[in-house]
């Protein structure tokens, strides 16, 4: 359930960032299909480099801030990677610069954290 919320939050965040920010635009103007590239790259990288707290509601504030800042940096670099891949493939999204990528990273990370905070939290495993 927790993983599904991360997937939904990532897809929703990428769509929101593309819709809200003028610096992030679609290459071919076919929104549902072109959002597959950024969402797939976000999901793959976020699975490889896991920067989410175990439980959002019971995490210490300093842990949320540290992981949030690291996550925004990670998501900013992913937006730049997606833009580079899109320019090579003539498909996906185009990001105008670092500021647009940074704002896109903030939107994606905030959306994922909100989705993780909603609903039941995972039960910590007893060791």
UniProtKB/TrEMBL annotation:
Transmembrane segments: 64-86, 98-119
Domain of life: Bacteria
InterPro entries documented for this protein: Phage_holin_4_2
Pfam families noted in UniProt: Phage_holin_4_2
Keywords: Membrane, Transmembrane, Transmembrane helix
Keyword set includes Membrane: yes
Protein name: Integral membrane protein
């Amino acid at each position: 359930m927790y993983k599904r919320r991360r997937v939904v939050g990532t897809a929703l965040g990428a769509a929101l960032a593309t819709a809200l920010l003028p610096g992030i635009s679609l290459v071919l103007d076919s929104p549902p299909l072109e959002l597959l590239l950024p969402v797939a790259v976000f999901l793959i990288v976020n699975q490889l480099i896991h920067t989410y707290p175990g439980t959002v509601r019971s995490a210490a504030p300093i842990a949320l801030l540290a992981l949030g800042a690291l996550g925004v940096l990670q998501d900013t670099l992913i937006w730049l990677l997606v833009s580079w891949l899109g320019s090579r493939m003539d498909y996906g999204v185009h990001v105008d610069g670092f500021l647009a990528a940074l704002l896109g990273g903030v939107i994606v990370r905030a959306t994922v954290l909100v989705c993780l905070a909603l609903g039941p939290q995972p039960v910590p495993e007893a060791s």
